[in-house]
Fold this protein.
Amino acid sequence: MTMTMTRTGGGKMVAVTPFNIPRDPLMGSNHLTAVRWLLASLVALGHVYLLTTAYEPVRVHQWTGGYMAVNGFFVLSGMLIAKSLDLRRDLKMYAISRALRIYPALIVLLLTFAFVFSTVFARPGGIDNALSGDVWSYVVRVLFLGDPQNAPSGIFAGNLEADFNGPLWTIRYEIAAYIMAAIGFAAGILKSRLMTLAAFVIVQILYLALPFMIDFSALPQGLLPLLRLSSAFLLGMCLWQWPRARRPHWLLVLGAIVAFLFLGGGFGGELLGTLALTGLMLRIGLSDTAHGSVVSLPDYSYGIYIWHYPVMQAVMFLRPDTGPLGLALMSTPIWISMSAGSWHMIEKPALRLKPKKRRKAAVMSENQGAEHP
């Protein structure tokens, strides 16, 4: 995608491609960080109920708020990753940037798991747990994109959910999407509008149809989630290729919401929900008017996503009779604080280590750099 620069009426330089127009909010100040806050908080809200009652009541039809929020994260990620690949066109810089976005905060979380959670919030606990082979096996497994959904060495023993940090399951799919997107761009497939759309349609059809055609119990466990999240990611990549689609009319968004409310319980309901959510995210996140206080919001969303669950589990370990409201009141100030520390002390400094050599256009778009789930 060839790109030029144009000057707006206010004298500000804005990147313009053959497919987009000046004043595209995605190329400058926008509210996407606030949208990511909302998505991460929706995931956390679902877990407030899951960890206390084993049921998430925040749902439309069978689709919980947390489930749809993860889809929303992947849509945003696909759009921003396509933007990054298209404007930078440097796979080495791209790979370094992605690693710096995901791994520093994740490594700190896993070290905290080994030295704090395994020693204090376990039965039996103690310093011996910090040296346990099971604990470090878990750390290595998560770092190398293995299954994070268990709690070794008695961590959170007795809790309703026997996981240290269930939400980490999406990170391996996020990294897989980064890799496949880079390969697609390098091969020229995902540089084409029509090929990107075709990839989305094919993956979506496979996701919808395969469960009716194949016994998934005989297939790798991660195949269906891979298709689900790849579909959402490719939808986001299509939005980069079609900038006008990033500005859906409110009537279209309302129509998608109504369709989801009435038809979302049937075949294709998840797709309707994802489209409705995407429309809302675009209208809020890429608003014509950027409000300074919202634009300057620090990006705690990744920290919220990776810290809220173990903090809630720790509260439930100490106060097992806590209900949803009590868990929310006790845990939220803690995981917000941990998220703030993660952003200001780990994530933001790590992002400063990105390679300095960038194409001019990429410099114009670095303000909106977080694409995680």
